[in-house]
Amino acid sequence: MNARSRVWTLGASLLLAGTLAACGGSSSGGGTGAYGGAATSAPAMGSSASAGGGAYGSGASGGSTSATAVTVMTASSSLGTILVDGSGRTLYLFTKDSPNTSTCTGGCLAAWPPLLGTATAGTGVDSSLLGTLTRPDGKTQVSYKGMPLYYWAQDSAPGQTNGQGVQGVWWVVSPQGTPITTK
Q: What end-to-end distance do the CA atoms of the chain give, in Å?
């Protein structure tokens, strides 16, 4: 490993440790914190809007507060049948949220961008379980069986489930609206 790689690795490690410590995500006690994972920048997920609402719904990391239609559907994965957006990107729920209330704010949103917009039921989804809630920042977030839906910023392609089980509080969602807690 060259000096530049070592410096970058050290810097990334310190940033991760600082973020986890600031949010209470340390494994040395104190619980999982606000979001149970490391804050990272959401990767660019493409620039064209699709049936799934584009990168992370409609303006997950800023932009308009108007509600754009996004599709929620099911897909097969190694974890079973799960909820995904119209582009096939995995959707998660946060077990520290309560029905119709998102507790993922601030730095949490960098790692767990919310699915924003109004929901349209796609293949395999029970439309009666789809809904929306108003986030603390005034944006409209999609919910399923009352639970707010999110992306994991480290899922860089459709079908990835890298956020599964992060800190034991982030899980993919079944078509019934329950967390799938297998790893």
A: 32
DSSP string, 151-163: --TT--STT--TT
**Site of tokens 């019934």:** 176
Which residue shows structure tokens 């699915």? 115
DSSP conformation letters of 42-71: PPP--SS--TT-SBTBSSTTSS--S--EEE
pLDDT tens string 36-90: 443 333 333 332 333 333 445 443 333 334 569 999 999 999 999 999 999 999 9
Residue 135 CA to residue 12 CA, distance in Å, equals 30
Taking phi over 0 as left and psi of -120 to 50 as alpha, with beta for the rest, 11 belongs to: alpha
Q: What is the pLDDT of residue 67?
A: 66
Q: Coil, strand or helix: which one is 22? A: helix
pLDDT at 180: 98
What is d(CA 31, CA 129) in angstroms, rounded to the nearest whole number?
Answer: 30
pLDDT given at position 183? 87
